[in-house]
Request: fold
Amino acid sequence: MKYISTRGHAPQLGFEEVVLAGLASDGGLYVPESIPAFSLPEIASFAPLSYRELAMRIMSPFIGDALSKDELTRIIDGAYDSFRHTAIAPLAQLDTNEWILELFHGPTLAFKDFALQFLGRLVDHLLIRRDERVVVLGATSGDTGSAALAGCRGRDRMQSFILFPHGRVSEVQRRQMTTMTDANIHNIALEGTFDDCQDVVKTLFADAEFRSKHHLVAVNSINWARILAQVVYYFYAALRLGAPAKAVSFCVPTGNFGDIFAGYIARQMGLPIHRLIIATNRNDILARCLHTGTYSMEGVTPTLSPSMDIQISSNFERLLFDLYGRDAARLATLMADFRTHRSFTLEAQPLADLRRLFDALAVDDVATQATMRTVYEQTGQLLDPHTAVGVAAARACHQAASVPIVTLATAHPAKFPDAVRGACRVHPALPSHLSDLFERAERYDVLKHDLALIKQFIEAHKQ
Ligand SMILES: *Cc1c(COP(=O)(O)O)cnc(C)c1O
Reply:
């Protein structure tokens, strides 16, 4: 399988190179040259497969001969052995045709574990094969950091540095990162904001000398292998609900558009998905784009669902590429426009195509809390605020009563205890494997927002 850049000026790469490259050298994102599709009888034959077996079937065509069958099996088994529910991604029913897909049974209690447990093992495997070492560098406002570190921990070829804003992440979020005390894990509490953390990371990636000297890699959601791992659970859930004989709709709490883009890929591969609903919080660039046709950047407003507090949705570029008939030259122009004017307007045809597949709704904090409360009263189920944004959007947008609607439950309620207590007046308990989180020893370094100092720290600690 070959991968091409959405902007047309980066070399075509194979799967292995794409995993290690992250962003394309022309600033674009890598996508498969073509999307492999399954026939309906083939999809029907997947129904009895376990999650791990299904993952093998879905991922293999994208990986080709970059990994042997045994290698891929070992990576998938390792990744999903770390989950605490035997179904890996169980469905829970909220109402007659309404479901949530619980994606929070991984080590850090958020759906990002699906991709990052896989990616950590995959990168480690490639590094052993190439006899290389890398520095994993990222910034986090909470969720991504712990999932990324959990995927890398104990893998000495991946020295991992995560910056988070000192005193500005919740205690659960901080402890999920800082209680990983493996030798290759380096938590940096930066004296500054999340934007400062991101600035540092961006500056270091833009520093060609530093970047190549230390072989920096990013594990952010533009990495194709992360999208690929997420395609699997759309098939898994739809098969449980009667696909491919029946169509299913999905509603996805959305930030960077990675998770819902995986749903779009599942549909391109032949899975009968009726609608994909984009659920956003007040940071609603995508909902505005779908409703008005204009994609335009505004400031970030903090909400109860911080992992969706984003200014732009990086992976949306991958969908735009398809909406513009995979015309890389047009897409490069569009993205250049966006860089200059912080806004662009979709033409009639791409906009019509977008609306044919997707719905979108922005849900504010008041409606999010009301949904958490209503669902708790109706079903006894506690939702985290991200999932509640999804359920609220699903209930508002879902028209076809005979089609099952599945909202992706992207985080465990215990990750956001204050929001849950505020809405439902109950305290969500941490699952048993994390119940001693508040007694565990922490290790992290507090650093000033000073680039030279941070570079020194990385050089001194990467071994
Ligand atoms: C990252 C995250 C999201 C948003 O996912 P994207 O792939 O960025 O759209 C939603 N909910 C939770 C809990 C997350 O951690």
